[in-house]
């Protein structure tokens, strides 16, 4: 465990291994897939609930972060839409009960899989009563869609409690990435997850070179919520008597994502 504030960044490892598919009902949704020509109008923050769409549950093994064996890796661009509700829920992943910031009840958030060239849309509803949210798509180029980059106060307004916002952008790269809250240090409360972009150019082929792929996500875990830690660090007295970066109480390796929250 790295005891520095900068090491809060979760480390996501994706590797090929021979494993059986996990099981368990997915709590996230991935809906209609259609071909698209462009990005359409720039989304705006709305008062209305998140747009309702026909929701088809996919990735039945999402909780294990095992990549979906039925996901079609293709060069044909598709639109993928996700409906995400951000809410606070209590859980004790290391035995200490505290509030988490979750996506559709999951901490960390759902595994997202897409192909290079796809257009992704995330319909976000902030169901946190007292906190704003934003989500940054770490490493995405956002060429021409800078307003989807999620820097509250710079590229967008913070998403207030009860409000919805749609992030929409085209993916023009591939690899193993992650997404995370860009509001304060909120991502340390659990608002982050893996973002896997496939490519037809991948020299390793499922079924030929490997059997399955598994994301392993590691993160530091604090018993205090980020708002408490940041408030302390920004005060004269510091957090727990010091303005030095605090050490985490635990490290989590969450190949299962919801067991502590259910
Ligand atoms: Cu980032």
TrEMBL record:
Q: Which Gene3D superfamilies match?
A: Cupredoxins - blue copper proteins
- Ranges for the Plastocyanin-like domain? 90-199
What keywords sit in the KW lines?
Answer: Copper, Glycoprotein, Metal-binding, Oxidoreductase, Signal
| Database matches in SUPFAM superfamilies | Cupredoxins
Q: Domain of life of the organism in this record? A: Eukaryota
UniProt keyword Signal present:
yes
Q: Where does the signal sequence lie?
A: 1-18
**InterPro entries, from UniProt?**
Cu-oxidase-like_N, Cu-oxidase_fam, Cu_oxidase_CS, Cupredoxin
Protein family according to the UniProt entry: Belongs to the multicopper oxidase family.
Q: Would you tell me the protein name for this molecule?
A: Multicopper oxidase
